[in-house]
Amino acid sequence: MPRLRFRYLAVPLLIVAAAAFAAVAPRSPNVIFILADDLGWSDTTFNAPNAFYETPRIQRLAQRGLRFTQAYAANPLCSPTRASILTGLYPARIGLTAPNAHLPQVVLEKSHVAKAGPTAKVLVAQSVTRLDTSYYTLAEAFKAEGYATAHFGKWHLGPEPYSPLQQGFDVDFPHWPGPGPAGSYVAPWKFPPALKVASQPGEHIEDRLADEAIKFITAHRDTPFYLNYWAFSVHAPYDAKPALIEKYRAKAAKLPPGSPQRNPVYGAMVQSLDDNVGRLLDTLDALKLTEQTIIVFFSDNGGVHWTAGTAEASAALGITDIPITSNAPLRGGKATTYEGGTREPCIIVWPGITKAAAATDTIIQSIDFFPTFAELLKLKVPATHTFDGRSFAPALRGATHDRGPTFVHFPHTTPASGGLASTWVRVGDWKLIRFYCLADDQSDVLELYNLRDDLSETKNLSAQNPAKVAELNALISGFLRDTAAVVPPRNPDYDPSAKAAAPNGKAKGKAKAKAADPKNAPILD
To answer: Helix 369-376 and helix 78-87: axis angle, to 10°?
Structure first.
């Protein structure tokens, strides 16, 4: 009898113990993915301590986690990189290789343009204009695990039915499919009335995005959430808070003439981004969520390294003759396949895994975020969704990690930036760029760089290293086959004697150049 009585008493004790364990069992961590737009590798003080711009809050984030010095976007323009983050797939595979997702045409099949004028050596790709909902996204994976999901800021992967609300997010603000904020950063904005994005006079869009994100964090403080804070900053239009512009104008006046970073409007824009990153960190601290929240800070492509020269950068702002920013010591910038176009600022804070104030030169890429989350957070991914990216979990723990060959495919030309249709591969310190149809006879041109010795890509070593060129070029060919990439072919109508149309509308040379096909180059958004 005593034994029987003990057995009956043990049952409620076990129930109480199980309940107590459940009460203290760790919950799944929150995830905040902060994505800047057009922020260059050298625009933050954690990569460039002498930068003109002030980023103390982002620096504070760097002090909390692991800084990646060799983190790459999968494309030198925004929409393709965004798609790569959400899917873990190369843009070349998806076919979304240019930022045309705000255009009215729905294009879901990749191809190249059928025709180009006689000054073009190559027929560039016709990019897909929407992220097809058939792809499984990072947001869908989190949602399947019971996470609350929200997207704040820039999307640029298609309006409904391709918006965040159809791609795994419960909340989307301001539900805007455009490349930048509607009209301006400082209210009054020009969002369509249907979006009901009310504003106060002089309100900054980044302040408003942070307000909405903070509301979401506060409302979901007791449940795991995945939050995209994909800032509009620091993309065009180039305007900012007047007081901050004057602050940086005064600062620029003290610099030597021709200093590479001296744009006061851009400086003000970077500070507004930094201020609101700080507000998110303050919110996590106040709600005691810091140790339960993974934070990623990244940018979608390199900084704009040319002058704006448009109405949005008018003489009234005093920046028409000043480059937006400089990515030095990196070569090039946005819309180019040199390092300045795809090497990005990157910080990851993963409580319990990353060390504080640490740095690594491990190579990672935007396609690697999804598989890393999937491995460490045990996210379920359909068997039909095979990643191009690789988990870099070992690097987060401080161990050695080699992701293998890394590729960027950009089958477009962008005259404003100097960008050319090309593909690059990096293996170790070696980087090979294949420029399509660039030679006078429309053959490909190959450039080889050793980034350990030549970070600025000033010395093309292809002639001295034919075996290395052949090895890396074969990898590019294999990548193009594997992803079924659109490889820009020669333009049969190319005429080397043709000249581009002069500003007065008259053509020079033996052959008159036809009006450029707007499909022949991506919009730089």
So the answer is: 20
Closest CA to 334 of 35, 44, 40, 74: 40
**Residue 40, both tokens:** 């260059």
Structure tokens at 374: 């999937």
C-alpha 306, offset from chain centre: 19
Longest dimension (CA), the chain: 111
User: For 14-18, 71-75, 147-151, 278-282, which range has the lowest pLDDT when averaged over its residues?
Assistant: 14-18
pLDDT in tens, 206-239: 999 999 999 999 999 999 999 999 999 999 999 9
Q: pTM to 2 decimals?
A: 0.91
Q: Which residues contact 254 (CB under 8 A, 6 or more apart)?
A: none
Helix pair 264-286, 56-64: axis angle to 10 deg: 50
Strand partners, 449: 431
238, 250 Cβ separation under 8 angstroms: no
Domain 410-520 CATH (choose: 3.30.1120.10, 1.10.287.470, 3.40.50.720, 2.60.120.10): 3.30.1120.10
Q: What is the pLDDT of residues 300-349, one digit of tens each?
A: 999 999 887 544 555 556 677 789 999 999 999 999 999 999 999 999 99
CATH code, 30-114+135-405: 3.40.720.10
In whole angstroms, give the CA distance from residue 98 to residue 478.
22
Task: Give the Cα separation of 135 and 177 in Å (integer).
Answer: 19
Select from 38, 61, 47, 68 the least CA-distant residue to 279: 61
**Cα 68 from Cα 87, distance rounded (Å):** 21
| Residue 228 · residue 150 · CB < 8 Å | yes
Q: Do residues 328 and 42 make contact, with C-beta atoms less than 8 angstroms apart? A: yes
Give the span between the Cα atoms of 234 and 253, in whole angstroms: 22
Tell me which H or E stretch contains 2. helix 2-24
Domain spans of the chain?
Answer: 30-114+135-405, 410-520
CA 364 – CA 73 distance, rounded (Å): 9
